[in-house]
């Protein structure tokens, strides 16, 4: 019945200010969703994004086209790029080839201009909520600026027909602050890539770590909002119990130089991708994740898929997927003393870590990007059907703000 009201080919324009090879949860997620939808014969995708230094000509295939725009780096955070606004360029492109739906992945100037173009052309919009700016404020002394940003983000997302969030927990938090029309779309995992079998004794030997020596790991962007200093506090407490323990950090960012200078006995592996990243995960014995600013936290389920026991706060991905003392270890959000204490306890319990790691792997194996893509497909098709049945009068009525049942 639903298919009878749908176009034979769905044209989806996706607007994002981040895309691989940039390494972050947003680019990782949207790449998987784009790849998944491209495998569905029913979709034609136009990807609108800032041109990167590594880019050649924009892709132009039967079901996938790229539209490059100009971008810029943030002066106080050079690792983050934003897209510049392109109202007229997008308006001309979408008047010529009108999308059925526009998906706004990021909320920067490019996303905002795309929002206004779509609304001016009466193209239905969906948006993704990926970044918890409110939590960032405590690390950058920009509380006033982030209060303004919170108002802007609520305005931005409420201008779309539906805002996609990764957990019911986050949806409830946003709903309590005035966000409307929220839908849940979870995250998946590449369980064949992130796998305990990727453990590398050669990598551990390169780090100076012996086979039975404890290797504590953290994979993250090395930035203030990731609360990395707490991970070092926990590791120093671990060393009191396990003196030969070693700490390896994987990732890059503005804090790397400071952290390396302050912790010369720890290993900084830099940015890793693909099989190399999988080997760095699987070669560890205990994963500490102290961030308090996540909307989800992809690295948590990547660590779990790699067979690692994870110590983290009980929110976002951990709240959804970790049962503490069964397949990982969690503590109440912001309880630093508990985080440090539990990390030290886990470091002393080899059998416990092994059990938690095995159960973590079982949990991660149940997650699939195919399921996530299927969920997005349903949301898009429901929106198209809904829009086609709206009359000019009904389109102006207030929309139901109740959270959808998943």
From TrEMBL:
GO terms for molecular function: glycosyltransferase activity; hydrolase activity. The keyword Hydrolase applies. Residues 201-362 form the Glycosyl transferase family domain. It holds the Pfam family Glyco_transf_4. InterPro entries: Glyco_trans_1 (IPR001296), Glyco_trans_4-like_N (IPR028098), Glycosyltransferase_grp1 (IPR050194). Signal peptide: none annotated. Residues 23-192 form the Glycosyltransferase subfamily 4-like N-terminal domain. It comes from the Bacteria. Keywords: Hydrolase. This is Glycoside hydrolase. The lineage of its organism: Bacteria, Pseudomonadati, Pseudomonadota, Gammaproteobacteria, Thiotrichales.
């Amino acid at each position: 019945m639903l298919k009878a009201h749908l176009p034979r080919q769905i044209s989806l324009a996706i607007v994002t200010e981040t895309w691989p090879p940039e390494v972050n949860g947003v680019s990782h997620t949207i790449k998987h969703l784009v790849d998944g939808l491209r495998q569905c014969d029913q979709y034609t995708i136009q990807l609108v994004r800032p041109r990167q230094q590594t880019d050649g000509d924009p892709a132009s295939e039967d079901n996938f086209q790229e539209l490059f725009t100009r971008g810029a780096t943030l002066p106080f955070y050079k690792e983050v790029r934003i897209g510049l606004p392109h109202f007229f360029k997008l308006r001309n492109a979408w008047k010529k080839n009108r999308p059925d739906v526009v998906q706004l992945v990021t909320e920067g100037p490019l996303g905002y201009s795309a929002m206004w173009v779509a609304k001016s052309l009466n193209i239905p919009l969906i948006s993704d909520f990926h970044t918890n700016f409110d939590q960032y404020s405590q690390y950058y002394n920009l509380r006033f600026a982030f209060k303004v940003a919170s108002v802007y983000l609520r305005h931005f997302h409420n201008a779309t027909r539906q805002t996609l969030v990764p957990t019911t927990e986050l949806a409830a938090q946003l709903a309590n602050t005035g966000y409307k029309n929220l839908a849940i779309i979870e995250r998946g995992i590449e369980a064949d890539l992130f796998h305990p079998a990727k453990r590398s004794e050669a990598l551990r030997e390169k780090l100076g770590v012996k086979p039975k020596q404890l290797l504590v790991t953290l994979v993250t962007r090395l930035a203030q909002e990731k609360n990395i200093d707490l991970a070092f506090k926990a590791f120093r407490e671990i060393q009191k119990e396990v003196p030969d323990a070693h700490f390896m950090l994987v990732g890059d960012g503005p804090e790397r130089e400071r952290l390396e200078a302050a912790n010369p006995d720890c290993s900084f592996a830099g940015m890793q991708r693909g099989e190399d990243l999988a080997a760095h995960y699987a070669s560890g014995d205990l994963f500490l994740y102290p961030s308090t600013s996540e909307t989800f936290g992809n690295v948590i389920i990547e660590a779990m898929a790699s067979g690692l026991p994870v110590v983290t706060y009980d929110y976002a991905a951990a709240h959804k997927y970790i049962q503490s003392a069964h397949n990982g270890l969690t503590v109440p959000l912001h309880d630093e003393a508990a985080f440090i204490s539990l990390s030290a306890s886990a470091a002393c319990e080899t059998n416990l870590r092994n059990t938690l790691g095995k159960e973590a792997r079982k949990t991660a194996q149940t997650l699939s990007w195919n399921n996530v893509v299927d969920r997005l497909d349903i949301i898009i098709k429901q929106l198209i059907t809904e829009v086609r049945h709206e009359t000019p009068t009904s389109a102006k009525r207030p929309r139901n703000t109740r959270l959808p049942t998943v």
